Amino acid sequence: MPSIIACLRVALLVLVTLALSAAGGAPDERPPAVTRTWTIDGVERTAIVHLPAKSAVRSPLILAFHGHGGRAARVERSMDFQSHWPEAVVVYPQGLPTRSARDPEGDRAGWQNRVGEEGDRDIAFVDRVVESLRNEGWVDDARVFATGHSNGGGFTYALWNARPGMLAAAAPVAAGSFDALRLTPLPCMHVAARGDTIVPFANQQRTMTAVRRVNGCVDDGAAWAKDCTRWDSPRKAPFVAMIVDGGHEYPAAAPPLIVRFFREQTRPARADDRARGNDGPWRNDIGVFRVDGRTGEVARVHTFARAGVSSVVRLADGDLLAAFQWFPEGDDRKHSFDRIALSRSTDGGRSWSAPRTAEIKGLSDDERAPFDPTLVALDDGRVRLYMTRNAKPGSGPSFPRIGSAISSDGERFKIEDGVRFAVEGTPVIDCAVARFGPAWHLVCPIQDGGGRAYHAISDDGIRFTRVAEIVREPNARWLGALTAVNGAMRFYGTSDRGIWCAQSVDGVAWTRIDGADAAISKVPGADPGVAFLPNGDAIVTATVIKPKR
Question: What's the pTM value of the predicted model, to 2 decimals?
Fold first, then answer.
């Protein structure tokens, strides 16, 4: 997400908050529940939404999913989280007809059980619900929780796998996970019954063991509540197992204990976050993922905290270099806040150096720090950094444009004279650049342009000539990485469903990438950077929402 757009969103949220305050606030009582509708890819999706009494602070959000064949209205009554946590926004989404082993024709409503199933329709649904409630000023991103029963619990695990940065904690009930070992550490409470024959207890035990392993739980556990054992985690991802007698039914004792667990995973917002409106790109992390070129398996290998808008490149010496916007905490923020940072890996992406603010010489005194970096390795061993440049506020009319800097060591850069790409009277930000054959291609998303992007070409990577715009469907935003591989250019972009990928041999006509080559689309996050290793594996950096707890 470009820094300018993020700041505009912060300003908009502040204005919305002031407007609500001026209107005299809201009643003290929780308003009645409403059924809300969202249309996603032409399909209407609904959910029962319980909003708390409006307050000056954002609210925790609980997403609660029914089981296969269930209904939102039914679990609204049985789970009743709105009564156990009156200050929370509680959403009971309604599933769609879904095939399962017990329902091969897909006559009853349910959820996808794994990332990639059903076209990720349910993950897209959750994305839209959270986004809309957030934009209305309701959601505290530090406290977004998911829980569900049976198939809804399986989807809770799938959502965790797809959107690890979205959730502060998860609480599946009577469920299993096909991909538990692919999860990233997250506080989790699992509720199971010894007599469950629908999702056999032994299967749930295997899932719980895998989750404890992922979360790094090493102790023997201790009593936490009736029927509950809690394991601590050095990764700040505790695990609670609630084991009860009975079968596959939803335990009546579960909701208040789930709420207790969710409450324990939250922390007050930091004072500096509150001062900045509690929203902004500092609320994100960059996840570093390795995608197996043979199996397509995705593994998260590293995290750059409080960061976004990343690029990664493999240098001539084989090292990997990552560049990104960085919002570090600490007293040195004056020198590094919202600056381009660099990190290097010498072992194929398994470990990374501590981020350091890039040294960029040659900027004018009336220019703000450059942002939105894109790295390109040159044949002579140097590395070029393309970035967005703009004047400081108060320096007169100016629109962001694309500039560049050059480095011989990947640490110290010098500004290259001139503008690489600009459009008169229009901001141009966050480009992607790659050399393919004798030509260089530069792509920039058109702001508010849906699936449209500017396209420019060059024979030296310096002097670019604008050519016809490139267009895909509105949800396929040209915000990501451009690279040349296997005789074609590939673009890995951003959409509401996650990363999309397409390829072209001329930069004009783009076709969707399917099959094994599309494995990068399984990486959770947005605005990816992509670099390929000699063995065919890919290192992918992507912005993920990181709750600050």
Answer: 0.53
